[in-house]
Design a protein that fits this description.
Layout: H1 4-24, H2 27-34, H3 39-67, H4 72-82, H5 84-98, H6 100-116, H7 118-133, H8 137-161, H9 165-183, H10 201-207, H11 211-239, H12 245-277, H13 279-299, H14 303-310, H15 312-325
Helix pairs in contact: 1-7, 1-8, 1-9, 2-11, 3-6, 3-7, 3-11, 4-6, 4-9, 5-6, 5-9, 8-12, 11-13, 12-13, 12-15, 13-15
Length: about 325
């Protein structure tokens, strides 16, 4: 509780996930209702997001290892977050309407840099800080879930008022992120893992020769990328179960807020669970819950039952994140 760096980084998590989820949760609905894209087009966009995320994450990871605990990449991501509003309103929307495939490619690249792949940079940085300053990653990440819950709650009303407002709210969050980041100072002399042999291409080549690394990447491909495509199409289907689109949008915002609040609590409890059963069994448990949720969403046909199934995401994501970093 007296660890100042913990509170600064937790605040960074809170604002970053607020800025992301304030528009991200309603992005499929924005695609369908504002841009009038088909289900196939929306699926194409999310497939592109997954591909660009997979391509960019290794580069981000390599750069993160090279620069250690310096904040260059975090400043770069904060700048991209600041550009969210102008990009969506003045670039992304016109491109999707007039030249869909060009817009999809450019959008996937920018969103992956700022969010899909960028979030891994932020989580990795704060996890390393946790090792330096002796705090549990899951308890810092819980504040990110709270920020996401607040963002989704605000977005539910803002979207019905003006769909573009959610993107400008994300850009405003970048101002706070910058102020927090400017106050963060990391003492690299306390980090034993930074003093190890510098990362080079030979290390990367050796990494890809390890069978378990490939198995782990296949698991992440399914649990993060493929599952993510399902999760983004879910919002459109959920809203369709209500008498009016506006009611579905607003209810989805409330449900998503509840789910993410539960996720915040799960992030505090997940370290105990994963430490007890081990990270490998934690991954298996998270994957099993994902599978149950996808099958259950296909079987449910009313708002109440599918809402209950949606809340399982809070348990699964908490265990998944902690297990991955363990």
């Amino acid at each position: 509780m007296k660890n100042l760096i913990y509170w600064k980084l937790s605040a960074f998590f809170f604002v970053y996930f607020f800025s992301w989820l304030v528009f991200f949760a309603f992005l499929p609905i924005w695609f369908g209702q504002k841009i009038q894209l088909t289900g196939m087009q929306i699926g194409t966009i999310y497939a592109g997001n997954a591909i660009f995320s997979m391509v960019l994450q290794p580069f981000y990871g390599y750069l993160s290892d090279k620069i250690g605990m310096k904040r260059y990449l975090l400043f770069f991501i904060v700048i991209l977050v600041a550009l969210t509003g102008p990009f969506f309103v003045f670039v992304y929307e016109p491109l999707l309407k007039n030249n869909f495939y060009v817009g999809a490619v450019i959008g996937s690249f920018v969103l992956s840099l700022a969010y899909y792949a960028g979030v891994a940079v932020i989580e990795s940085f704060i996890e390393k800080c946790g090792r330096i300053y002796n705090f549990e990653f899951g308890r810092a990440r819980a504040w990110g879930s709270l920020g996401a819950a607040v963002g989704v709650f605000c977005a539910g009303r803002a979207f019905n008022y003006d769909p573009d407002l959610i993107f400008w709210m994300a850009s405003c969050g970048a101002i706070v992120l910058l102020l927090i980041l400017l106050t963060v100072r990391i003492d690299e002399s306390k980090a034993d893992f930074i003093k190890s042999e510098p990362i080079n291409l030979a290390n990367v080549k050796h990494l890809f020769s390890i069978k378990d690394v490939w198995l782990f990447m296949i698991f992440i491909l399914g649990s993060a990328c493929v599952y993510g495509v399902f999760d983004q199409q879910f919002a459109i289907y959920y809203a369709s179960l209500f008498p009016t689109v506006e009611q579905g949008n607003e209810t989805f915002g409330y449900l998503n807020s509840l789910q993410i609040f539960l996720e915040a609590g799960g992030m505090c409890i997940a370290p105990f669970i994963v430490n007890k059963i081990g990270p490998k069994h934690g991954l298996i448990l998270a994957g099993s819950i994902m599978t149950f949720r996808m099958i259950g969403s296909g079987l449910a046909n009313d708002p109440i039952s599918i809402s209950i199934i949606k809340l399982l995401h809070a348990i699964e994501l908490s265990i998944l994140l902690v297990s991955v970093f363990k």
